[in-house]
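re: ur question from yesterday

yeah so i grabbed the chain u mentioned. its 187 aa long if i counted rite. heres the sequnce exactly as i have it in my notes:
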Amino acid sequence: MATTSDFKNGLTIEMNNDLLTIVEFQHVKPGKGPAFVRTKLKSLKTGKVISHTFNAGVKIDIARVERRQYQYSYKDDFGHHFLNTETWEEVTIQEDIISAPQFLKDGQEVEILFHADTETPLTCDMPAYVVLKITYTEPGEKGNTATNALKDAKLETGATVKVPLFVNEGEKIKVDTRSGEYSERVK
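ran it thru and got these C-alpha cells back, copy pasting raw so excuse formatting
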C-alpha cells in the first residue's frame, strides 16, 4: 500500500478492477479545506485518459509492472510474435495492445509492459520514430507547390503516409509512430 505522496508520472496503480498509469498529477493545497491530488490516469485496458481527484493521504494499490525490451519477429493467425534478445523467450501478443502495429517491421525493437504478478502483456510501445523505406509513390510534379502539397507513399510495412512532393520512391523516411505522420527524410 502506498499513499498519494508516492505519486509520480508513469506509476501504475490498481483501481476499480483496472490498471491505470499516472500521466500527470498535481498536489493542490487550497487556502481553505484539505489538500488533494488532481490526476490524469490512462487505462491500460482501454487506452482512455480520465481525470480523477484523490484526497491527500489516501491509500492506493500500486501494481507491479515491468518494462522489457523485445524484438519483433513475425505475424501469423495467433498474433504478433516478439523475441526477448537476452533470454530468447518468445511472446505472442494481440494487435490491439500495440501502439502502432502498421509500422512494425522485422527486427524492430519495442518495449512491452508486463504485469509482474500474472506475467500478462499489458501494452507494447513502439519507439517515437521509426525509419522506413518507401516502396511506392507517384513522382512529384514541378510547379504544383502553391502550398505544402502532399502525396501518398506506401512504406515497406504496407502502411501509407502522406509525404511532401520532393520525396521519391526508394528513399528512407522517419515516421512519427504516435501520430503516423512523416517527419523527415533520412540519408
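noticed a couple things. The two ends are 51 Å apart (CA to CA). also The mean pLDDT is 90.
anyway ttyl
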